[in-house]
Task: inverse folding
């Protein structure tokens, strides 16, 4: 790893988003001649990149920029099948991802967390547990600070806790986490991966370079996750709800760590400030990961007790009158949306839709049947949502987030909940799930202001 050098190499970075900029700056600081190729015509960080010796090529990807490079580095949002990338690969140019490049220069240990749902919460919690235990932890990857931006701060005693997506894992080569966690698996991102098998193969790459000195943390309740991790050479650490004799599980009201001869209490379940069985599962996973990396029971308890959730993840935005508004814009697949819906007791109006990326909206029928008054369908998938759910309960279409929130508010009963649980990506209407969630919150704030002015 330490022998990796890009000094004097011509490197093309595809994509000028957060991780693309971070890896471009890192590569330039290590002596590479770096060009960022970006489809947008305007990049706000252009002056900063130029000052650091990075050439910026905007307005589309030019084949020659890729085929004449010594190395191409992909941002997670750029598919391997993109024509210029494919042309470079056909010419024999090595193609890797930002995660791969950064991992080669880390001095600290690497903890990588993936799964179809719960990655961000688990990664954040694991980092908090380690920090509360006195461990020098840095959190990022697919959330927060890109791994490339952590390299210069990496020391032998640093633990890098990173969320990794299937897109990032698609472009790894030597990527070698000391602890690799697979939280769960269900069909997702089928708009990008050619099928479920390809998506599973990408997830499995988190274990690819591990050996018997490493750890694979796996959900004991998820048969698909167990199957994906089956070929890993690493030692297993299990987490789950179902009668675990060894691993991290729930016993009574406590999250506990069980071994062959002891049971160590870690934190009361009642200390959680965010609701939902899926949130408890994230706590189990984070505790399993962080215990391997040096977290103490006291540190885990402090981290969980002070955790009020992430933005856009079952975020209670406001109450307007007696109606609660909850933003779960991060529920970008059907399984995540189902978990969100199951966290609400009754009186629910769910806002569902966006850009469809696989799965069956009919899987939402059972939790909606006992909880929901109506569904408001948005985005490109609105017709699919209506087809799947329209015979079960009223489905109202809305052309914008403003219309959707106001419609849902009008349908919600006294004491009810309006829940944004899209089960889809956001790219038909918004830049990302964060913009979608922010727009939801803006509309709710206006509703609250209007209600206050009428008092």
Result:
């Amino acid at each position: 790893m330490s022998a990796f050098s890009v000094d004097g190499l011509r490197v093309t970075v595809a994509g000028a988003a957060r991780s693309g900029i971070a890896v471009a700056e890192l590569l330039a600081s290590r002596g590479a001649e770096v060009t960022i190729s970006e489809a947008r015509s305007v990049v706000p960080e252009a002056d900063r990149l130029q000052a650091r010796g990075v050439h910026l090529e905007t307005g589309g990807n030019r084949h020659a920029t890729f085929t004449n490079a010594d190395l191409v580095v992909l941002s997670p949002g750029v598919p391997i099948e993109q024509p210029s990338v494919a042309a470079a690969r056909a010419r024999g140019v090595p193609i890797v991802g930002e995660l791969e490049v950064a991992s080669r220069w880390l001095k600290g240990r690497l903890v990588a967390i993936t799964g179809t749902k719960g990655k961000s919460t688990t990664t954040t919690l694991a980092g908090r547990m380690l920090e509360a235990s006195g461990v020098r932890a840095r959190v990022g990857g697919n959330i927060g600070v890109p791994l490339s931006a952590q390299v210069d701060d990496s020391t032998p005693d640093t633990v890098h806790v990173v969320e990794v997506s299937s897109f990032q894992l698609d472009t790894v080569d030597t990527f070698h986490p000391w602890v690799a966690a697979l939280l769960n698996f269900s069909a997702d991102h089928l708009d990008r991966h050619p099928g479920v098998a390809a998506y599973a193969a990408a997830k499995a790459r988190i274990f690819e370079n591990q050996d018997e000195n490493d750890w694979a943390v796996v959900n004991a309740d998820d048969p698909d996750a167990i199957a994906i991790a089956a070929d890993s050479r690493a030692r297993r650490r299990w987490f789950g709800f179902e009668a675990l004799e060894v691993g991290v599980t729930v016993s009574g009201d406590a999250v506990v760590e069980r071994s062959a001869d002891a049971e160590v209490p870690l934190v009361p379940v009642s200390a959680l400030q965010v609701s939902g069985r899926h949130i408890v599962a994230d706590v189990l996973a984070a505790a399993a990961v962080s215990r391997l990396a040096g977290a103490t029971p006291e540190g885990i308890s402090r981290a969980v007790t002070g955790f009020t959730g992430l933005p856009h993840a079952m975020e209670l935005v406001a109450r307007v009158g007696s109606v609660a508004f909850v933003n779960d814009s991060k529920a970008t697949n059907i399984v995540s949306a189902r978990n969100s819906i199951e966290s609400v007791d009754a009186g629910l109006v769910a806002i569902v839709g966006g850009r469809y990326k696989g799965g069956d909206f009919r899987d939402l029928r059972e939790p909606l049947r006992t909880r929901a008054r109506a569904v408001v369908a948005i985005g490109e998938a609105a017709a699919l949502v209506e087809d799947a759910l329209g015979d079960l309960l009223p489905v109202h279409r809305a052309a914008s987030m403003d219309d959707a929130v106001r419609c849902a508010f009008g349908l919600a009963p006294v004491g009810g909940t309006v829940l944004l649980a899209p089960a889809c990506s956001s790219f038909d209407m918004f830049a990302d799930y964060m913009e979608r969630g922010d727009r939801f919150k803006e509309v709710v704030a206006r509703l609250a202001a209007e209600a206050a002015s009428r008092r």
Observations:
- The chain is about 35% helix and 20% strand.
